[in-house]
Amino acid sequence: xxxxxxxxxxxxxxxxxxxxxxxxxxxxxxxxxxxxxxxxxxxxxxxxxxxxxxxxxxxxxxxxxxxxxxxxxxxxxxxxxxxxxxxxxxxxxxxxxxxxxxxxxxxxxxxxxxxxxxxxxxxxxxxxxxxxxxxxxxxxxxxxxxxxxxxxxxxxxxxxxxxxxxxxxxxxxxxxxx
Length: 178
What we know:
Layout: H1 5-16, H2 30-42, E1 52-58, E2 79-85, H3 101-118, E3 122-126, H4 131-138, E4 145-153, H5 169-172
C-alpha cells in the first residue's frame, strides 16, 4: 500500500515529537487543552477499566511545582498534566496477577503527547519527581499512584523532524522467537 499524504503526515508527526525541556511560556488555549483531555478520555485501556485520573495544573497552582522540579526549564511550562493510576480498579492478568493500571495510564499519556505534538506543543514526561510531595501538594489519596507529570507548552523553537538516537530495528525486533 502506497503512503498517501494523510498517512505521511501521521508518521512525520512522530519524527517531530521529542522531549521538550524549555518552553516559551505562551498560554495553551482552552480549545487545545479540551482536545488533549478528550484524547486522554478516549484512550484504550485493558478491559476498558480506565484506571486513571489526570490533574490539570496551571496558572496560580502551577507555581507550587517549582519546588518539585529539578530542571529549571520545566518551571516555565504553562501546563502540567499529573498522571495518576488507580490500581484497585485496573484489570489484572490472571496467570501472574500483573496489574495494568500503570500500563493504561502510560497508553493514555502517550496518545495525548502525540496529539500535543500535532497541536504544535512540546511536552516532556517528568518522572524525576518525589511522588509523596506531589500527592501532598495535590491532595491525592493514598490509594492512587502518581505515574508522572507531563510538562507541556509551546516550545521556544518549532518542533521539526530530527534524527533521533535510537537502536536499530535488528537490535529490538524479533521475528517468530527471541
